[in-house]
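To whoever is covering the structure queue this week,

Two jobs came back overnight. Logging them here so there's a record in the thread.

Job A:
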Amino acid sequence: MIYGYARVSTNKQELDVQIHTLKESGATKIYKEKISGLKENKKELTNLLKEIKAGDTLLVTKADRIARSLSQLEKIVTDLTNRGVSVNILNMGLFTVETMANPMTKLLFNVLGAFAEFERDMILERTQEGIKQAKEKGVKFGRKSKTHNIEGALLDAIKKVEAGKLSQQEGANYAKCSVATFKRRLKEYRGQQGAE
């Protein structure tokens, strides 16, 4: 059986291109996941490595889909080929226990694997530089904070707390919310008053 493995690093990325390529290359069962290559526990890859057996083939589009470093790639490919599994990395070639025993193939594997690791490191470096430049230009990252309408019983409770008529705990009870939520809304209220 030919197993495919497709991975992207974030939920915003799509697997469609990899899945299409794997199917065109003969994969009959495809494991896929959206998880960073830096994460150790890749559930779908782990499940695939447990299921695959001698005589099967693992098919991936690029080396960095299954490994984040040359040493990790070599470990996975060696473990699989020693179990009788062929590993076909579409941008590197087909590796079997026989080809991995050949010194020229082993050298080629290591050179191509080193280039894949280098490429990944360069992408990471460029990404970090881009983030740094964006921050220097004032771009803010992360979720935008929500602004809440402070009204009704909540507004009344906040005004009483500000006037010293209620404690924050009593204000939360009065507004029928948790103390933590009340404190957040109180902080927002104070921020709004200070901005006016």
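Job B:
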Amino acid sequence: MSTDAVAPFDLDSAWDLDERVAIRPERFGALLYHFGTRRLSFLKSTALLAVVRALAEHPTARAACVGAGVDSPELPRYRAALAALAASHMIQPRSV
């Protein structure tokens, strides 16, 4: 078992899907495959898929969440999911 903690995720920063990641929509959400790391991630909801797809269109991850219809009480759960995607290099900070 790994003792590595997931780094804090900054909802107020700009994020993008890594260009080496392919999205395959599914009924439950989506599969993400990273061609660089050869890792597979599961998005377990269509709402999380909407957030991930919206990252490039919004100035911050928080704005992408709001744009995808995520309510304030749900933000901690989405922050944790986005932190896991960042830790697995599926999403990355947007370069300016």
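Note for Job B: The helical segments are 46-54, 61-67, 75-87.

Please reply-all if you pick these up so we don't duplicate work.
Q.
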